[in-house]
Amino acid sequence: MTTPLLKVSNLSKQYCTGFKWLQRQHTQALSPTSFELGKGETLAIVGGVGSGKSTLARILVGAEERSGGDIHFEGEELESRNLNQRCRLIRMIFQDPNTSLNPRLSIGQLLDEPLRFNTQLNRYERNKQVIDTLRKVGLLPEHTDFYPHMISEGQKQRVAVARALMLNPKIIIADEAMTALDLSVRSQIINLLLKLQKDLGLSYIFVSHNLNIIRHISDKVMVLKDGEVIEKAPTEQIFTSPQHDYTQRLIAEQTQRLQTR
Ligand SMILES: Nc1ncnc2c1ncn2[C@@H]1O[C@H](COP(=O)(O)OP(=O)(O)O)[C@@H](O)[C@H]1O
Ligand SMILES: [Mg+2]
Question: Which residue, 163, 154, 161, is CA-closest to 111?
């Protein structure tokens, strides 16, 4: 058997929520969770508010410490790679470009930042990479001089994608990244992500509550409820024969919403 790109084993997270009678209080945000992700594959993570989706995403990109479990990348324990290397492998696209893109920086500066902090490239090499990446996401070299407020929502989302691409990651995690976009912009961004996946061999982890998007783009689905994986299956199987009541309800709700629109 080939080694999966990413292998997550018994990953768990407890948050300390304070003290009561001098005892530390914890919430179990994520119960021991295991899954694998192959190269070029897309895993969707679905579940209601507070089910642990963002916690899982933040642990994978290294923005949050885990309480237990292992993460292996190409068979190697992630902790053993240095941080610099690690934050290149897995990158995150955040929910809302209006808050994740610093309004005081130009698009060029925003894209240059990850290169300045994480690579030894000189100014000319960095500039070349910024422009190449702008082209990859369907923007122009001229956009380097623009500021976030000067461009449309769709273009901002493209900048967010470009920023995630800057260090040539292997995996991109999008945490509810497209929820705020209107329908036509959303489908443009989805098509962009699918094209990038094909061209660059990227793997994706999509956190979303929009089951339509998930059905369209993912290969497999993991359903979380209160920090526990309740179902995990290939996408078509989840939609055609959901095993768990909760999954059945999620799909039924989605179908209803579509019909009443
Ligand atoms: N920084 C934190 N400190 C304490 N509890 C947290 C923190 N972040 C999340 N939680 C709790 O962990 C659980 C999972 O949260 P989260 O991962 O954000 O869920 P989701 O993204 O699925 O809505 C929730 O009960 C939430 O209140
Ligand atoms: Mg969340």
Answer: 163
Pocket of ligand 1 (CB under 6 A): 15, 17, 27, 29, 47, 49-55
Q: Domain boundaries in the chain? A: 6-98+171-182+189-260
Instruction: State in Å: Cα 227 to ligand 1 middle.
Output: 9
Ligand 2: centre distance to CA 81 (Å): 27
The answer to whether the beta carbons of residues 58 and 3 sit under 8 Å apart is no
Q: 228 C-alpha to center of ligand 2: Å? A: 15
Structure tokens at 165: 């691409």
- Confirm or reject CATH 3.40.50.300 for domain 6-98+171-182+189-260, answering yes or no: yes
d(CA 146, CA 137): 16
Ligand 1 atom 7, closest CA: 15
Instruction: Read off the tokens for 198.
Output: 């094909």
Count of CB atoms within 10 A of residue 219's CB?
16
Rounded Cα distance between 79 and 33, Å, is 18
Helical spans, DSSP H, in the chain: 53-61, 83-89, 97-100, 107-118, 123-136, 153-165, 183-200, 211-217, 235-240, 245-260
Q: Which residue's alpha carbon is at the smallest distance from atom 5 of ligand 1? A: 15
Tokens of 150: 């000067």
The answer to whether the predicted template modeling score (pTM) of the entire model surpasses 0.90 is: yes
Split at pLDDT 50, 70, 90, the class of 82 is: low
The whole-angstrom separation of Cα 105 and Cα 248 is 45
The answer to whether 190 and 213 have CB atoms below 8 angstroms apart is yes
User: Would you say residue 260 has pLDDT above 80?
Assistant: no
Percent of the chain with pLDDT over 70: 95
| Contact status, residue 76 vs residue 18, Cβ threshold 8 Å | no
